[in-house]
Amino acid sequence: MAHTTPAPAETEAVGKTPTASVPARRQASKVRRQRLRAAWVFLIPMLLVLAAVAGWPLFRTIWFSFTDASFANISEYSWVGFENYLVYDDGMWFGVLADPTWWQAVWNTLFFTVVSVGAETVLGLIIALTLNAQFRGRGWIRAATLIPWAIPTIVSAKMWGWMLHDQFGIINDLLMTLGIIAEPLNWTANADLSMWAVIMVDVWKTTPFMALLTLAALQMLPSDCYEAAKVDGIHPVRVFFKVTLPLITPALMVAIIFRVLDALRVFDVIYVLTSNSEDTMSMSVYARQQLVQFQDVGYGSAASTVLFLIIALATITYLYLGRKQIGGEA
Amino acid sequence: MSSRTLKKIAGKIGFAILLAAILLFTVFPFYYAILTSFKSGSELFTVEYWISSFDFANYAAVLGQGSFVKSIWNSVLVSFATVLIAMGFGLTAAYALGRVQFRGRSAVLMIVLGVSMFPQVAVLSGLFEVIRAMNLYNDPLALIFSYTIFTLPFTVWILTTFMRQLPKELEEAAIVDGASPLTTLFRVFVPLMWPAMATTGLLAFIAAWNEFLFALTFTLTDDQRTVPVAIALITGGSQHELPWGNLMAASVIVTVPLVVLVLIFQRRIVSGLTAGAVKG
Predict the structure, then answer these.
(1) Of A199-208, B11-20, B194-203, B229-238, which gets the smallest average pLDDT?
(2) Do B105 and A330 lie within an 8 Å CB cutoff?
(3) pTM
(4) In A, which residues are within 8 Å of B263 by CB distance?
(5) What CATH number is given to the structural domain containing B136?
(6) Co-location of A56 and A127 in the same domain
(7) Tens-place pLDDT, residues B228-249
(8) Are residues B175 and B252 in the same domain?
(9) ∠ CA A160-A161-A165 to the nearest 5 degrees?
(10) Which residues contact B46 (CB under 8 A, 6 or more apart)?
């Protein structure tokens, strides 16, 4: 039945050849207008939901950062201007930006991000190159690499917390059996080691993600340049650095940027493994501690806002660089 | 033996060692959690590398706690509801973004991508106020609401990617037949999108199942918690008396379903991850 609808336009078109395209075009633009309207009708609910769960709360967080609201009674507050950020009072600087603990948290987060994403990229690349080879049981190994990715961060932090236990942990036992260390190490409480423990857990958990994205990029590479390199007898290591790496760099960059943005907001693994220790505290842990534990919504919101600005800056840079790729063909 | 065959054998051995190392690296911590979960009492304090006993006491202890079982239910409820909501809003939006060329399309895509990068802690106090105002504090419904902030953007993102890959002819036939956009979406695209929807739904489910910060902040009592919070808050008398056996049993209980799902749907998950490059 539906077939009949556009038929008149068609017969008309056959009948009056010179003006034929006008009704057809009108029909086409009507369809296009209908589709445009439908597109917005489809989009608006989604945009409203995003406004309710993201836009409005973000606006309120920024608002709170200029007030003295408390967690226990969030509806009563007064305006304090930039006091939560930075204020000069009685010969002293106060506020988030004057708090050495905050700057320690910023440093911790940056250190964590650079080291863990760096290690994940290198390990992910090694795993991807291995899995890119043809061998029996490849599917099984690939499935196995997904296990850490699927395990909740909390659970992996607890699992590693147990493995890194200072008295009964298997890692200390292994290192002592191998003669690498003489005394058991207190991984999660020792100021020099705890950040490395956090990085270890994060690397374990997120390397599979990097490996799979890298593997996908590797599998899309054309095989002809490899055959040419093989015929010319070029060493595989040279082929990797001259051909493979440049070709997968764009895909690798996308994965790295996603991981960087994710690492900058790290919370779970640090909170569970080392709780509120200042040696490993990230920006998110700092902000939440102010908000919930110290009940200071104003101050905590100021810290959250600074974190948001840092990530926004990183995101905008990325979007600006990747604009062409995203806006591309429909 | 010629040096060439020697080299080949050495290469094969090296490759096998590499594979074994990868396998050990990825699987061992989970294996060790399982091993620990079967130990009880003083056995816990001797390090072992092989499973020697099968003692289900830890599992019985964990499942015997009403609040832990309740938290599993809460997690199931929250995760399923979050997936359904994200799918409902995401599918129509993805159709608009993936199939219709209109002005402002890339701006909308930017917003969606931008929201998916939001640090959760940046909306924490604002969301807390909203949840208080809706009277949902200490209620799993608050989590369903707040999880939409991360499940919806990536659902839209991945479904848009998949939607774009479908051939144009399909839709043209429907338009010529005079089908409305909604009919086109549900009659033409949805039947073809099942694999993509399964992938996206699974990723959203895992993200919701694993979420911690909102669940920790927006719930207060044991019977309202989700599983990650319940596990994080299992405590003994002090830091040094954590009931590691129970903890590992609880970890295994909540992880095994995910691992099974991932092993079954691994191909789908890989295609979803690469389509959306979502976070883990």
Answers:
(1) B229-238
(2) yes
(3) 0.87
(4) 143, 146
(5) 1.10.3720.10
(6) no
(7) 999 998 876 555 577 888 899 9
(8) yes
(9) 115
(10) A168
